[in-house]
Design goal:
This protein is mainly alpha-helical and 97 residues long. It contains two helices and no strands. The protein is rod-shaped, with a radius of gyration of 21 Å.
Length: 97
C-alpha cells in the first residue's frame, strides 16, 4: 500500500512541476509584452519613432529568456529529485528501465 501512495505522490509532484514549466512560457511572454509596452510608453513620452519599441522588445526578450532558462533549470532539478525518490522507492536497482 505504501508503494502505490508513494508513486501517486511522485506523479502528482511531476504534474505540478509540469504545470509550473508551462507557466514559465506564459511568464516569458509577459516579459516580452512588458518590454514592448515600456518601449511604447517611452516612445510616447520622448519620441523617436519605433526605436524605443524595438529596444523594449529586445530587453523583454532577453530578460524573459533569462528567466525561462533559470526557471527551467530549477524545475528540472526538482523533477530529477522527484524521479530519484521514485526510483529508490521501487527497488528495481536499474535506472535504464
Amino acid at each position: 500500500m505504501n508503494g502505490t501512495s508513494g508513486k501517486r505522490g511522485g506523479d502528482e509532484l511531476e504534474t505540478r512541476i509540469g504545470w509550473r514549466m508551462a507557466g514559465l512560457g506564459m511568464e516569458t511572454a509577459s516579459f516580452v509584452l512588458g518590454g514592448v509596452v515600456i518601449g511604447w510608453l517611452i516612445r510616447e513620452a520622448v519620441g523617436g519613432g519605433d526605436f524605443w519599441i524595438i529596444v523594449g522588445a529586445a530587453a523583454g526578450i532577453a530578460s524573459g529568456i533569462s528567466q525561462l532558462i533559470r526557471g527551467g533549470l530549477k524545475l528540472n532539478r526538482q523533477l530529477d529529485r522527484a524521479a530519484g525518490r521514485r526510483d529508490v522507492g521501487t527497488g528495481s536497482g536499474s535506472k535504464d528501465e
